[in-house]
Amino acid sequence: MSFNENVTLDTSQVSSGGRGGGAPGGMVVGGGIGGIIMLILAMVFGINPADITGGGQQPAPGQVQPGGEQGSAAFAECVTGADANTNIECRVIGSVNSVQAFWAGELPRFGKEWQPTQTVLYRGTTQSACGTASNQVGPFYCPLDKKVYIDASFFQILEQQFGSSDGPLAQEYIVAHEYGHALQDQLGLLGRAQRDPQGPESGAVRIELMADCLGGVWAHHASTVKDEDTGQPFLKPLTDQDIKDALSAASAVGDDRIQQKTQGRVRPENWTHGSAEARQRWFLQGFRTGDLNQCDTFAVASVN
């Protein structure tokens, strides 16, 4: 899904957590990709999330991450949709702009108001209130500081190590999924993941598949979400190839695909995100209906 070239990018919605290097690495086995990792689960059991991920002293609320900068200074090259079409960091920023604009316009229909959510876009490692963020953890939403964390090198890992397409919507889907978690947090739903954190029908899997569906809802409407500055939609209409790209990414981050790749066998009892097929199916559920109400993964007997 390509951006309209003349739309403006709002870099204030993104901050840099530093670009301190670090070659693309592997992924935490069993951790899944694109989730809330297991940080809210840790809080329930009295575990310091920093002990899980190696995090140390955290910045004060509102403080820029060590080595980081606020958006306009850190991402001066990201000005228009044309930049988002050629630069991965600018594409993430444009995706953040579009997703937030969509939910800000959509939620009032349900009597809710979207709370703006910052993304920390970094390379290598940075600190979150939930511990150390890195490309080994993958993109995640941290409920403790209400921010999304994305390592710009992650998409290379997703493509080269897990066989995802490198198409734009494959990357934009990841951003939309993480903002699905932010929405779940704002709606008071994230706690359901704590009830049973593993297994093919667990609360954790249902929360992740709901976020996939919410990403699909955004994709359904994305070509109509307008940039306030220009009055143009951020994104051009989807093509069949765009949908294939998103489904490729959804499949690549299925628990069964990850387990087979990293462990050589599939163990559904340890799933935290859902199968490749389920992740594709729930994204399509949101995309085909464009309806938030069709994403209730807790209303069905089986999600996989």
Automatic annotation (TrEMBL):
Keyword 4Fe-4S on entry: no
Stretches that traverse the bilayer: 27-47
Entry's localization field: Membrane
Record protein name field: Neutral zinc metallopeptidase
Mode of membrane association: Single-pass membrane protein
A Pfam family recorded for this sequence: Zn_peptidase
Origin: domain of life: Bacteria
Keyword Transcription regulation included in the entry's annotation: no
Compositionally skewed regions (Polar residues) per UniProt: 1-16
InterPro entries: Uncharacterised_pept_Zn_put (IPR007343)
Database matches in PANTHER family: INNER MEMBRANE PROTEIN, PUTATIVE MEMBRANE PROTEIN YPFJ
Protein's organism: Ornithinibacter aureus
Region (Disordered): 1-22, 254-273
Keywords: Membrane, Transmembrane, Transmembrane helix
Subcellular location, principal: membrane
